[in-house]
Amino acid sequence: MSEFETVIGLEVHVQLKTRSKLFCDCPVDWGGEPNSRVCPVCLGLPGTLPVLNRKSVELGVRAALALNCRIAPFSQFHRKNYFYPDMAKNYQVSQYDLPLSADGFVEIPREEGSLRVGLARAHLEEDTGKLVHFAAEGFSGVDFNRSGVPLLEIVTRPDLRSPEDAYDYLKVLRNLLRTVEVSDCDMEKGSFRCDANVSLRLSGSEKLGVKTEVKNMNSFRAVERALSYEVSRQAELIRSGGAVVQETRLYDAASQKTFPMRSKEEAHDYRYFPDPDLVPTELDRVWIEEISAALPELPSAKAGRFQRDYELGFYDAGVLTSDPALAEYFETAARACANFKTLSNWITVELMARLKESDTPIESSPVPPEHVSELVGLIDRGVISGKIAKSVFALMCDERKPPSEIVRERGLVQISDESELEKVVEKVIGEHPGPAEDFASGKEKALGFLVGRVMKETRGQANPRLVNEIIRRRLSG
Ligand code: ADP
Ligand code: ZN
Ligand code: MG
């Protein structure tokens, strides 16, 4: 047992998939000409009044339901006061003591029993603008396109016990939010951002240690690495007689280290007070029930169904349901395929490796699901060998053609014609009398060599099972 226990809590901001901003009707598209999607409200001009976007609340409720949170019948927006040059009003509209939802949990599926991560709250808030630095020209600009974009902040309890747990939690959370279509959860586009809080305590101790908060990670792996670095930094500090100071630190991906950014502010520094321009939000129970009834099947239920209906193992079902688009891809392919296990392998191993290489999401897969089903059919019917199937699959990715067409065009059909194979076997035996005699005199190992030569002669197209049979027949007795 290690001397310290790691304690982690994560704060995730996701951008809600609305068309317009939280308090005005400016569009929320990504990128674009700076300051082209602004209006007096999201610029915080005097005399303007915010109007709450109903869709943001609906998406917040949808997320809260998927996160097993209690939805507050009555919630309130507060002003969080601080100065930042990209925030025109000098306050951010957020939620404080009356958040939209609280007390939820997320289950991380594990074969030995799932790990439950408590959620303290999930609340609505507006995003700030963005500073753009022109280092060469020596000035900075501010872009308010992002100002007022609706965010949901999801805060865990300090329930995570390792950087790996944190990584798994983020994957499960993203899957949930994407499944209920609340957010794209695209870290690169900033629609999913994570701040990670971490502390150590002596193993067996109940009291939480002093935490640091790490920001600026742009991938789940970066979160995991930043936390691992922070865990060892804190451990060394404590072992050498020092003390962890509560602060916010920035992660630097190049050095994989964290650096101090600022001392941590406390809630009272922000002088929260209810936003007098916004009436409290009262939610109708019936509306919440309607939203709840319209939720799609959640990942855990889907994984269970995949295990039952497709007879897949825990691991395969977990991978296939780790993303809604991937699950849909599999189900489309499965409609035209009888061999689910093999289908699952081609998708989770070959296809996913290929997509990862080119950083392509499954939605833009060069191979449509029907083509994978067809490939599995060709293998199962013995038309092509598993080995040839790999090269066919590579061609399917490059040429975007169905496998049957590729097999036909290149004459890759497996050779199962015995007389044809017998001729090749004769030739190989003639060329390699040594191994042939070895096998005839009982050295089983020599068989592999001979089969290998036949496969080579036929450019991988011989049916290996038949080749085995023919060589045995020819050389034994
Ligand atoms: P703060 O006011 O510093 O933002 P919060 O209480 O709002 O702190 O918690 C922020 C996040 O930090 C939550 O996810 C919480 O679970 C986590 N957290 C709080 N205390 C600790 C701690 N001692 N160690 C690790 N994580 C913590
Ligand atoms: Zn606006
Ligand atoms: Mg906080």
Characterise this structure.
The protein has 477 residues and is an alpha+beta fold. It folds into 3 domains: 9-203 and 264-290, no CATH class; 297-410, no CATH class; 418-475, Arc Repressor Mutant, subunit A (Orthogonal Bundle). 39% of the residues lie in helices and 19% in strands. The chain contains 15 helices and 16 strands. The chain has helices spanning 54-66, 163-179, 220-239, 285-293, 299-309, 314-320, 324-334, 340-357, 369-380, 386-399, 403-410, 418-431, 433-440, 445-457, 464-475; strands at 4-15, 70-71, 74-75, 78-81, 91-94, 101-108, 115-126, 130-134, 139-143, 150-156, 192-202, 212-215, 247-252, 257-263, 273-274, 281-282. The strands form 4 sheets. A 9-stranded mixed beta sheet has the order 2-6-7-10-1-11-12-13-14. A hairpin with a 4-residue loop joins strand 8 (130-134) and strand 9 (139-143). Helix 9 (369-380) runs antiparallel to helix 10 and helix 12 (418-431) packs across helix 14 (445-457). It is elongated, with a radius of gyration of 29 Å. It starts with a strand and ends with a helix. Bound molecules: adenosine-5'-diphosphate, zinc ion (ZN) and magnesium ion.
In short:
The chain is an alpha+beta fold and 477 residues long. It has helices at residues 54-66, 163-179, 220-239, 285-293, 299-309, 314-320, 324-334, 340-357, 369-380, 386-399, 403-410, 418-431, 433-440, 445-457, 464-475, and strands at 4-15, 70-71, 74-75, 78-81, 91-94, 101-108, 115-126, 130-134, 139-143, 150-156, 192-202, 212-215, 247-252, 257-263, 273-274, 281-282.
Number of helices: 15
Strand content: 15-25%
Strand order of the largest sheet: 2-6-7-10-1-11-12-13-14
Give the rounded overall mean pLDDT: 95
Class by alpha and beta content: alpha+beta
Unreliable stretches covering 5 or more consecutive residues: none
Shape: elongated
Largest sheet: 9 strands, mixed
Q: Give the helix level as a range of percent.
A: 25-40%
Bound small molecules, which ones?
A: adenosine-5'-diphosphate, zinc ion, magnesium ion
The end-to-end distance, rounded to whole angstroms, is 63 Å
Radius of gyration: 29 Å
What's the total count of β strands?
Answer: 16
